[in-house]
Amino acid sequence: MAKDYYAILGVNKGASDDEIKKAFRKLALKYHPDRNPGNKAAEEKFKEVNEAYQVLSDHDKRAQYDQFGTTDFSGQGDFGGFDFGGFHDFGGGFGDIFDTIFGGGNFGGFSDSAKNGPKKGADLQYTLNLTFEEAAFGATKEIEITRGEECRKCNGTGASPGTRPVTCDKCGGTGQIRISRKTGLGNFVTVTTCDKCGGTGTIIKTPCPDCHGTGRVRRRRKITIKVPAGVDTGNTIPLRNEGEPGTRGGEFGDLYVNINVLPHKIFKRDGFDVICEMPLSFPQAALGAEIDVPTIDGLIKYTVPEGTQNGTIFRLRGKGIPKLRGYGRGDEILRIIVEVPTRLDESQKKLLRQYAEACGEDVNEQRKSFFNKMKDAFGI
């Protein structure tokens, strides 16, 4: 079951950004691990609060959550075979969030350790173009992205082969500098990132020539994606751990595949319904006819009744797009366009005049009604 992030933060669905931020700050202070050492329940609650804030503070993710009840369409779940369970941290760890909300530094006894711990890698985005049929019925696609990966020459250490990083002599390998000051209220400790090693705790004296000391190189990577049936332009498929690598042992970021459906020559889409405009000749519309109608499943036979008017709509049940959650399909909306001939020879014109004379002006009730209304309107 999807989590209610608004209930977790204790705010209404229409809460403003400031209200969400204020609620998060209050709960984060209450359940922060530094204030609840060894309390697993508080730790889980803090993660849950963080998870809720990550979604509701991001306008795009919040809109997606409000629409679908989740922002995660990967795995094996309701979204056409993708998992809706187990939302994960979109940010770079608790330190980044506290820097944003509280302004960094030591706040009420919180240390900078989270900031210097493992950080999740950056997320990536990719736009995947699909044909109308691929979006309707699903497809398996292979894409290629460029991302940072471990340098093979130095095995990710950043040091030239035959050497290795050494412990930073300024921070002693902790990656942090702690400064203690006495005040009238007691000792005040400020924890900052070591400026010599950048918080890594090590110094690379001889950088690797391939990655220049970063431990990573840019590589092309092929990824296979299972696109569920029923997706449409604007849908996003998240792929976990396919983004940029993390730092200090952090996990990879995520890859967000944004769907773009290419236009079709015949069909248009309205939600899960398919719209098709079908031309009919005047004799077919007047006398009725059995015609071949295109659907996304192929051609089908359909009988148009006599007297069909231009713009008449027929609904073909179950001939539309499969629904994302697997509950049936939309319909095909067949809109009739009666074609008026533009080139007639003399014999055809003669036949039409005979038809008009045979009908008489009083026979066409729609036309008579229109002209009566026109006379009333213009006083003719």
Summarize it.
The chain is α+β, with helices and mostly antiparallel strands. It contains nine helices and 15 strands.
Describe this structure in words.
The protein is α+β, with helices and mostly antiparallel strands and 380 residues long. The chain is built from 9 helices and 15 strands. The protein has a 4-stranded mixed β-sheet. The chain has a 3-stranded mixed β-sheet with strand order 1-9-8. A two-stranded antiparallel sheet has the order 2-7. A hairpin with a 2-residue loop joins strand 4 (176-183) and strand 5 (186-193). The longest helix has 17 residues, at 40-56. The relative contact order is 0.10.
What keyword list fits this structure?
single chain; 380 residues; alpha+beta; four-stranded mixed β-sheet; three-stranded mixed β-sheet; 9 helices; 27% strand
